[in-house]
Amino acid sequence: MSQVRLGPISLHWCRICGVPLLDRRPCGICGGMPSAVAITPPGDARPGFPFDTGMVRELADSQFGEGAGKRLLPDGEIVMLNRIPDLDRTDEVIAGGQVLANLTWVLGKGFALQLRLPGAARIGVPTKGWVLADEGAVPSILESSNLLGPGVVRCATGILAMDEVVVLDSENGKDRILGTGSARMASEGMEARDRGTAVKIRWRRDNVTEVPAPPAHRRTWDDVLDANRAVLKEAVDRAADFIREGASKLGREVAVSYSGGKDSLATLLLVLEAGLRPKVVFIDTGLEFPETVQNARDVSGNLGLELLMESAGEAFWENLARFGPPARDARWCCKCCKLGPVTRLINREFPGGVLSFIGQRRYESEARASKGPVWKNPWVPGQIGASPIQEWPALQVWLYLFENREKAPWNPWYGRGLERIGCFLCPATNFADLELVRRSFDGYDRWQRHLATYPEMWRTYGLWRWRRLPRGVQELLAQRGIEVEAPPAFPPRLSLEAKTTEVSDTGAAMEGRFSRPLNIDLLANRLQALGKVSLDGGRLLLGEWAELHQDGKVLIRGKDGQELKRRLSSLEEAVLRAEECAGCGICTGRCKTGAASIRKSRMVIDPEKCTQCGACLTGPCPVTTYTQHDL
User: Of 72, 110, 291, 549, which residue has the fewest beta carbons closer than 10 angstroms?
Assistant: First the structure.
């Protein structure tokens, strides 16, 4: 996978104290100068919690023999994880100021530990998962070659193809580590010296590999906090200044958009540091962990702040048939379950608009890196968003939370292996994290029952998370000889068909038919935004330029072909928005007179307030933005 650079990598390490540092300034404990840690971009390293450390140790014991885990990560050592680009989840495991291993999820298989040379050196010669190379193969391996079957002297029993292994060579009768990599044949094939690649070498011995020593003293995250207090205080002061300046300049009521995640918690605490008392806005998407909802209540209660909560209810489940499963390249769920409800809340609670401080950071994605610290979201009228932690790396966020842990608790799901907290089935989530959720959250069963209608491969590989499969996933499936089955078909979207157009000196006209019958009573309400509406039996008249029939037939008139084309486009989109309305409420935020509101999961128009400005029928809408499942 290509590297993704979203900002400067600032992780450093004090080798004397055995703690990570936020920048290259001297350690706050001993005053020693730190060393940079060579991690992969985007370089947003985070603390390893006991769950994470335990997982790494268990995998090390399973793959390389009992006791390997404790030798790799001894008690009392600070451990960090750094998520790197890959087909699914891969975290660099960092301790002693070096990357010791990769914790990775292999699609269709599960978690595996890929040892790097410093990590392998800590473990030493393993009792499982080892392969001894013939001395004649060593020079070519050190150059760049893989270990071929004829070059194997012997190996541990029980190795399967694709297992992670440690490759050894022998000097003066003593085995030593030559490299690490992935087996390409089982133990039996290696012992028989079958032709072909026995081990694909990922990392090989060199003359500069340093083995980080275990810490001389037990270290805790309080020690890390002590080593970084000066840097952290400067960042907190800058963030507080940013918050005060923004609130003063914009003159809007202030709120904090709280998600139940670490970044929004840090943002909320920073707004309090700035001397403001914000309202806390929490959107229950209907897909939240119970612990997330409770965390929003606990945090706002502990801090004595007003909690404003809006719920999407069953919006996600009600719209599944319309949009299909949410995908990374079609996140309709965010619009229907989050941005729609927040728009409704802002209309109700902040009629004059709101300055929302949001826990967004540049290291999360390319889109967020390019957005800047202040922005407007076209999907949420009335809100200006601002992030005081836009430039903060994850380590800085966590140190700030550790410093303030007596004030507010963080979400317990961080201690269960998740890096980010959001909707429990978010398509942007790696499949590894979805598996952790499945194992620990009973509410995931409802989603599994829905996915049971899909071919097995869509569940095994998490293919439902894309409309168009990424090239890397396609190549992986092809390598395994897997042919992608088609997903279930969804009802076709409403469309205008069989159009015939006539243009003459006296004007232009078009006749056509929608792909299914129309709800004339519904359209009579919604099309008021385009002009005067009247009903004549099963026929709807829109001004003097359009008529629609219950059976789907439509007639449009215009003075010329260009006007006809414009009217056709606006009418077709208006009918689509009305007939397939998701009830999200985003359009109501664009209505300046309060004529548009949500009733019984649909937008309706109050004719007494409507000025026919058409704002509710323009701008982004999930129905027109996202189409059906399309591969």
Answer: 110
Listing DSSP states for 426-480 in one string gives: -TTS-HHHHHHHHHH-TTHHHHHHHHTTS-HHHHHS-GGG-SS--HHHHHHHHHT
For the residues 80-96, what does the mean pLDDT come to?
96
DSSP per residue, 286-318: S---HHHHHHHHHHHHHHT--EEEEE-TTHHHH
- Tokens standing for residue 27: 């350690």
Model confidence, pTM: 0.92
- Spatial distance between the Cα atoms of 3 and 90, rounded to a whole number of angstroms: 13
Start-to-end Cα distance in the chain? 23
Tokens of 220: 């805790």
Please give the full DSSP string across 50-92, using - where no structure is assigned: HHHHHHHHHHHHHHH-TTHHHHHS-TT--EEEEE--SSS-EEE
Q: Which helix (H) or strand (E) holds 183?
A: strand 174-183
Beta bridge partners of 106: 110
The 3-state DSSP composition of the chain as helix, strand, coil percent (nearest 5) reads: 35, 25, 40
One-letter identity of residue 252: R
Closest CA to 278 of 412, 388, 414: 388
For residue 482, give the amino acid letter: I
Instruction: Give the tokens for residue 506.
Output: 């006296």
Rg (CA), the chain: 30
Residues 6+ apart with CB under 8 A from 129: 63, 64, 65, 156, 159, 163, 164, 165, 166
Buried b (16+ CB within 10 A) or exposed e, 547-573: bbbeebbbebbbeeeeebeebbebbbe
Mind listing the pLDDT tens digit for each residue in 424-435? 999 999 999 999
Q: Pick from 307, 298, 302, 249: which is nearest to 278 by CA?
A: 307
User: CA distances (Å), 530 to each of 511, 524, 527, 570, 610, in order?
Assistant: 19, 11, 5, 9, 10
> Could you give the strand order of the β-sheet that contains 35-36, starting from the edge strand earlier in sequence?
19-21, 12-14, 35-36
168: Cα separation from own chain's centroid: 39
Structure tokens at 353: 């608009």
Query: pLDDT by residue (tens digit) across 2-14?
Result: 567 667 788 999 9
Alpha carbon distance 103, 94 (integer Å) = 11
Distances from the Cα of 470 to the Cα of 85, 328, 449, 463, 599, angstroms: 13, 10, 25, 10, 39
**Which domains are delineated in the chain?**
12-204 (2.30.130.10), 221-421 (3.40.50.620), 496-625 (no CATH)
Contact between 3 and 205 under an 8 Å Cβ cutoff? The reply is no
